[in-house]
Amino acid sequence: CNIPARLAAAEVAAVECARAAGVCTLNEFRMQMGLGAWSTFDDMAKEPELAAVLQELYGDVDNCELYTGLLCEYNVGNGGAMLPHTAHMCSLPLNIIAADRWFSDDALADPELYTNWGTQYAAGASLAGLLATHTRVRVGGATVDLMAGGAGGDVQVNIGYGARSVFNVGAL
Questions:
Q1: Is the distance from CB of 172 to CB of 143 less than 8 angstroms?
Q2: Which residue segment(s) compose the domain that 119 sits in?
Q3: Verdict on whether the full-model pTM lies above 0.70
Q4: Alpha carbons 22 and 20: distance in angstroms, whole number
């Protein structure tokens, strides 16, 4: 998979978060979507080097995690897009915005819903502030610093331009 080195910490964090949450494996996900399960890493990846690394890491294709599998699986006849991964990545920002009341200006301005204190607090709140307060992730400009607790320093990860349009990074 072509993951830039500067994003490695974020990728590792995504895998660890999925493990902690008990996210299904790639084959479990494919079965739920009505797709056939992969029987070997060679069929799944179509690249011998990648298949060998996946075999070494997971042992059995049924153990391959969803996030890793979505990035590494090969599909035929779709113009090069990994369908499950592409569909997920396209729907993710929309679901975040639709489901998260922090992105709803009309609700944030309603004191009957959030109380007077809540609307005043929300008016001064930002995504950067929420991340810093609740996740130990600092956002500044177009850079996210993942604070490595006990690792002796911060890891900088640049936010891609796609995230700017969703989260208006310049306003953070």
A1: no
A2: 106-172
A3: no
A4: 6
